[in-house]
Write the structure tokens for this entry.
Amino acid sequence: MTDTLVRPETPVALDSVDRAALIDSVRRSLADRCTQADVRRIMDSETGHDPALWRALAEIGVTGLTAPESAGGAGLGAIELELIMEEAGAALLPAPLISTAIATVLLDGERLASIVDGSRIAAVAFAGTHDWTGRSDVRIAGDRLSGTARFVPDAAIADTILVATDDAVFAVDRGDVDVTPLPVFDRTRRMADVAFHGPATRIGDASRVAAARDIGIVALAGEQAGAARRMFELTVAYATERHQFGRAIGSFQAIKHMAADLLLESESATSAARDAARQVAEGSATKDAAVPLAAFACADAFVRVAKDGIQMHGGIAFTWDHPAHLYMRRARSGAQLFGDSSHWRERYIRALEAQA
Amino acid sequence: MTSDHLQAEVDAWLATHWQGLPAHHESFGRDPRSAWLAKVRDAGWAVPRWDAEWGGRNLSNERAKIVERAFAAVGAPGAGQDRSNLWANTALAHATDSFKRQIVPQLLAGEVGMCLLYSEPGAGSDLAAVRTRAEKVDGGWRINGQKVWTSGARVADYGMLIARTDWDVPKHRGISFFFLPMKQDGVEVRPLRQITDEAHFNEVFITDAFVPEENLLGPLNGGWGVLQTALAYERSVMGDAARGPRSGAGGPKGDHSLLGLAREAGRLDEAVVRQDVAQVIAWRVLNKLNTARAKAEMAQGTSSPIMSLGKLAMSRILHEEARVRTMLLGSESLLEGPEHPRAEDANFLAFNAYFTSIGGGTDQIQRNIIGERVLGLPKEPEVDRTIPFREVRAG
């Protein structure tokens, strides 16, 4: 196991044909293995995780999408990750994809290889000034960690917990920490509190933490954009089919006008997520504005589409059996995952001030 | 010819001919840049995608963009009007060949001033309800009626006019589309004072004015179809641009002007101010990203639903930006006059936002269009769609 992080290889950029083929293979895999019935089955399971689904995703290369080829990954970049996440979001895929993308940036060597081949899962706890929850309490003394990281996504199913502090990145085995799964509102995105009380392996300095966070935001923004679009499509389809007062409800201006506004929200989210991905991939000078913009634009858009989408459906979407609430739960959960929209608007305006 | 040859040809042409222009642009009326635009037209750069017969070069979209980019790189106007010139595109698509030969070259060089004679006091959002009448007479039509919201009418040589030519069929089927000569007795233009205290628009009173036969565009009574193509051009242009502050003294324009104003007002450390400023700037950036995505998708040959969203997005941006500017100024916004340019800007922008949210079709009409044409939602029933216009209640 290396203790020093080396720069990852430059990601490969796919041409549009290969990119379309990649997206298509993910889409087909999700259509087979991540139907709404699957989402509900996994959501109701003890861990909220389906190892068979995860293996299937590993086989088509999703778990190693952004890992370098030397680690067995596909060597792709933020652009492809974002597009794949749009598909994952549309299907409400309950799987540790975002954690994996972040971990891929922080890891090297065998640890990375075992993440890439899907045999191990990593969860990431951001600590110090990177902690968006403001509720964690992780202390570092030499190579020993103590205190608790709160709301850590995927921690209960992880084999390795990575802790990204202001100075270093640590890895701790699952057996060396106390993990307390949280009773989360969105059961398709599990979180846990992680209590540390012992030695941790320092696997590198903090040079990659900002990049890891950027990748996490890009992945989440893509997921939100894709989910918002799917929820919007479901809503428009319903407004076309559902008749009241002798006409399709979509013919009423009250519905039509909401639909037009939601199209703007949904398309703007897609634009923001893809632009942030491109800027991260290119290492653009204005990346530090593009990433926060995507963070709040996509979160807000998805919440609004999910919320108004339920209203436009009427009573049917108020039932447990209709998928609308699953999208609403995802939207609300994602809008807090890496900090709320106010937090990201503040970071956005700081980036603009720095550019001015 | 390869792309490199084309690039070299445009660059060489620009190097020889382009010497800059005074920065002035007016989309209505006679264009002060005519001499330059005529050169661009004669060289074939104005409409590179069109057939040579109409002054173009038969270039593919991709190659035409090489031309546009070369012009943009040196800041020269006039290229790529095959995508942007409302007047020329409408004429090319619908005028008779003889009229096209006369008018299109003049339009491309801005040698004739133009205005839009669509809206009437009783036909705003519902343009199919126009009551201006065109009656057949020897050699053409006699026009009587009243139009409103006409920019540039005082300097226009022609107005694109919709008028009723058949009163006994349903409203959409009895309208025709004309190029009305404006410089004639019987066309009276009166400036219309607006809520911004400007007189950008006019009322046009038409009494026994004459339109020659050849100035009819499209089929007789087929004007509704011609109007739809013309309106689509207009809307796509409106989403891209909006006017800035009137005085130009309210700080730097564009994305960061709000940031500058907040700093100047000493309020950039207030959390609420920071949130609002960030949100408005973000909406502007998102609109640009959407437009760029739409253009990229259309360049690949797929139609993009996003193109129809720009105008709606811009309405929200303009109204919200005016609100935030006013908040930043506080009591200063109660003042006006040249010694209070920031207040004057904020107050002007608060009113002028309606230029976009009402003009060119209200936001509400725009939402109907997006709902029906982009999303395929069923149409709102129209009770007057099938009855003869004579029997329609209006006003």
Notes: Residues 209-241 of chain A form the longest helix (33 residues).
